[in-house]
Write a structure and sequence with these properties.
Elements lengths: L6 H53 L2 H11 L4 H31 L5 H16 L2 H6 L3 H22 L6 H18 L19 H19 L3 H9 L2 H37 L3 H37 L7 H8 L1 H18 L4 H26 L1 H22 L6 H28 L3 H18 L3 H16 L1
Helix pairs in contact: 1-3, 1-4, 1-6, 1-8, 1-9, 1-10, 2-3, 2-10, 3-4, 4-7, 6-7, 8-14, 9-10, 9-14, 10-11, 10-12, 10-13, 10-15, 11-12, 11-13, 11-16, 11-17, 12-15, 13-15, 14-15, 16-17
């Protein structure tokens, strides 16, 4: 069986999808924001966040756990087949239990019953999601192709079917339906890469303890990625949910470029750690953090400089309240980029599930407490402040837990230049802004200044890329 054994190739596969994941909202978000307005978007995000709570119980901690387990035995078709069916059995049991709980909840929540009914499709999609199996095999090509088709189909349907504010249920149906069909499509590849296993050889109970342990950090993550929208809807209103969710979504779109690296590193690091090759693990980690700094610094400062122009242009003048929220959220680009490596790619791969759980639970507690304190007075601003502080606490704790492979002096030596370069870029951007009131000219200046700076200081990563490009051109 062929598998993507090269981290760079897998990263490019995953990055290609992440680029499409960025392009898709760039096309649909401005359109949907103007059609459904902040209240409509807030209603969807509010109900989807509640539904996601039930989805968390369906999947437990199977995603990250299963990737690691499949990576451990990817060369053995019998072993990986057993693990596949055992994990699937666990998910079927949780799906049945929490589907019943979901419909019971719906019977007491009449206001958004139609939306909740449509969103149940996401629970079915979660059950049928087997992308973890292909990630464990380091076969990212299939999941990328699937996701690309789903995204493109979603774009076409949204632009052609969502015409008025009353089409909110249609919008929800498109998002949930395409996700479900995409997950179903992955099953056609299975007959060639797994084989049937008699039920008597399956012992799904042996995974229960591990997936529950990993469920706890997932649940805690839910507290500061989705529960804040629920709390905003309860303590404030769905319009504030709309302002918050759109600004947060824009930040997380940028973060996808960085988190795609963490996704492809999970199986590779798990395999290296099992072999005891800590030197390579340390090398991968340090270079990954360097890359995250190189990309996140100009993103953050650049976004702050143009946010007051970008939000009205992208979402419409009705969303101007999201400008200040977006500026407060920009540190998340760096924070989430680092935690994507230090958490899933390192701590989980090291088998430090309990510590990983501890870090995320602490972050959840910080977020929950701050939400209760800040949302009543600051509304959406309170939610974004709580999110940034909570994610920061989690990342710091995870780096402490990964200290065996964290060479802090080397990381600082390699990354300080990106901070300086981004600050210089920011200063230039503010000057250019006073002369040219054009966002695209400012962005062009910013990219140029930052790139020239890195070339002048002879940044290793930039020169590595250039040397490889020159070598390939010469080879042709």
């Amino acid at each position: 069986m062929k598998r993507g054994s090269n981290v760079k190739i897998n990263y490019l596969y995953n990055l290609s999808y992440q680029i499409l994941a960025i392009i898709t909202p760039l096309i649909t978000t401005p359109y949907v924001a103007r059609i459904l307005d902040a209240n409509g978007i807030g209603q969807y995000n509010y109900t989807q966040s509640i539904t996601y709570l039930f989805i968390m119980f369906v999947i437990l901690g199977t995603r990250s756990y299963a990737v690691r387990e499949i990576a451990y035995c990817r060369e053995d078709i019998k072993k990986r087949s057993i693990i596949f069916f055992e994990i699937l059995e666990v998910k079927i049991v949780t799906f049945v239990l929490f589907s019943l709980a979901y419909f019971l909840f719906m019977s007491f929540y009449n206001q958004y019953r139609i939306l909740f009914f449509i969103l149940f499709l996401q629970m079915i999609a979660a059950l049928l999601d087997i992308s973890w199996f292909f990630q464990g095999l380091e076969d990212f090509k299939k999941t990328v192709l699937r996701n690309c088709i789903v995204k493109i189909t979603g774009i076409i349907l949204i632009l052609t079917c969502v015409k008025t504010a009353d089409d909110l249920p249609i919008y929800a149906l498109i998002l949930c339906g395409t996700e479900l069909l995409g997950n179903i499509s992955m099953w056609v590849y299975l007959p060639k890469i797994i084989k049937k296993v008699p039920l008597i050889e399956l012992f799904p109970k042996r995974h229960v303890k591990s997936v529950i342990i990993l469920f706890l950090p997932s649940m805690a993550t839910y507290v500061y990625t989705s529960l804040d929208k629920v709390m905003l809807g309860i303590l404030s209103n769905t319009e504030q949910v709309g302002f918050y969710s759109q600004s947060e979504r824009l930040i997380r779109l940028l973060v996808t470029i960085l988190t795609s690296l963490g996704i492809v590193l999970v199986p590779r690091m798990a395999n290296l750690m099992k072999k005891g090759n800590w030197k390579e693990v340390k090398k991968y980690f340090t270079k990954s953090i360097q890359f995250i700094f190189m990309v996140s610094m100009p993103m953050s400062f650049g976004l702050i400089s143009v946010s007051d122009q970008f939000i009205p242009w992208f979402l419409g003048k009705d969303f101007f309240a999201s400008v200040s929220l977006l500026n407060i959220l920009t540190p998340l680009i760096l924070i989430l980029g680092i935690s994507g490596i230090s958490g899933q790619a390192v701590l989980v791969s090291m088998g430090k599930h309990k510590y990983y759980t501890y870090t995320v639970i602490v972050g959840a507690c910080v977020n929950l407490a701050l939400n209760f304190l800040l949302i009543p007075n600051l509304q959406a601003k309170g939610a974004v402040i709580a999110t940034v502080l909570a994610e920061g606490v989690v990342t710091i704790l995870q780096l402490v837990g990964a200290r065996k492979i964290v060479d802090l002096k080397k990381i600082l030596r390699l990354t300080y230049k990106y901070v300086i370069g981004a600050l210089i870029m920011f200063g230039v951007l503010m000057e250019v802004k006073s002369i040219f009131n054009n966002m695209f000219i400012q962005i062009t200046f910013g990219i140029s200044v930052y790139s020239i700076f890195l070339l002048l200081v002879k940044d290793v990563l930039i020169y590595e890329v250039l040397n490889k490009l020159i070598w390939k051109l010469k080879k042709q």
